[in-house]
Design brief:
Blueprint (H helix, E strand, L loop, with lengths): L11 H30 L6 H12 L9 H24 L12 H30 L3 H5 L9 H17 L3 H26 L3 H4 L4 H31 L11 H12 L8 H17 L2
Helix pairs in contact: 1-3, 1-11, 3-4, 4-6, 4-7, 7-9, 9-10, 9-11
């Protein structure tokens, strides 16, 4: 996933600043691929290249950054929160490890799982707003099929006006299911791979740039692949407007209907784009260390 555990060795203030800069750099560098991923997931066909060519030709290259303000405003707090929860709970789950030693792999996995579950409650509304902005197209606007959404505040107001608090928190269950195990897997794969590539680095903190890049990229790719079908369901469920014409009544209905109408392959549509983005985002984090 999109986070970096190297900041855990420093103080909370440094983690907040470093995590903020790293998160912003990763978000900006990977956002066009994220927009392409969202469009692939919510469509019935289309390769990443075709989606990119279509969006740029009709809506312009800046449309790939549509909706970025919402996650940009929350990424610093989100990263700092994940780092702190993970740092605390990775040792809480395994108190037999002395403070002078790095957390056990069991503690790493359980701490990451807890951090992912808690932060998902905050990120779910942010992603709901982001997805609705990313999927807004000029074609629909010109045909008067939808009213142009001006930004995150406009989207939030419209959801509140039509659906209330329930509407803005649409999809928290599937977000928790996606983020809990994927965060746990991310931290475990990262720590394990780093130690295998650079023995002793978990204790002395002297891993190389290449070690961090490979371990972070691999951890990001593995964690995203593990939760990708859930991410597809989440995107489709959050993309719709909750009204009498809503296509899906819930996440289970979304899963069943998507598979029945488009086959099991729909659950993996855009996974290549996501894996590529995982390495790009982790590379941006490293340059901010």
């Amino acid at each position: 996933m999109d986070f970096w555990p190297e900041f855990l060795t420093s103080s909370w203030g440094k983690e907040f600043v470093a995590g903020g800069f790293g998160g912003i750099a990763g978000l900006i560098s990977g956002y066009p691929l994220d927009s392409i991923r969202i469009r692939q997931q919510n469509s019935k066909s289309g390769s990443a290249f075709n989606v990119f060519r279509h969006v740029v030709a009709i809506e312009g290259p800046l449309s790939l950054y549509r909706g970025m303000a919402a996650p940009l405003a929350s990424v610093t707090f989100q990263n700092a929160m994940v780092f702190q929860i993970y740092a605390s709970l990775s040792r809480t789950f395994d108190r037999n490890i002395p403070a002078s030693e790095p957390p056990s792999y069991k503690g790493v996995a359980l701490g990451g799982t807890a951090a992912g579950a808690i932060q998902s409650l905050i990120i779910s509304p942010v992603e709901l707003v982001k997805i609705q902005l990313q999927l807004q197209s000029k074609k629909h606007q010109h045909n008067n099929q939808t009213t142009s959404l001006k930004g995150p505040i406009d989207v939030t107001r419209r959801i509140f006006r039509r659906e209330g608090w329930i509407g803005i928190h649409r999809g928290p269950t599937v977000t928790v299911l996606r983020d809990a195990h994927s965060h746990g897997l991310y931290f475990w794969v990262y720590e394990y791979t780093k130690e295998q590539l650079h023995p002793g680095c978990r204790k002395n903190g002297q891993e190389s740039f290449q070690t961090m890049l490979v371990a972070g990229g691999l951890a990001g790719a593995v964690s995203w692949i593990s939760c990708y079908p859930l991410d597809v369901v989440k995107t489709r469920h959050q993309a719709q407007s909750q009204s009498k014409s809503a296509k899906y009544s819930g996440i289970v209905d979304c899963f069943r209907r998507s598979v029945r109408e488009e086959g099991h392959g729909v659950l993996w549509r855009g996974v290549g784009t996501t894996v590529g983005r995982a390495f790009l985002v982790n590379g941006a984090y490293i340059h901010c260390l």
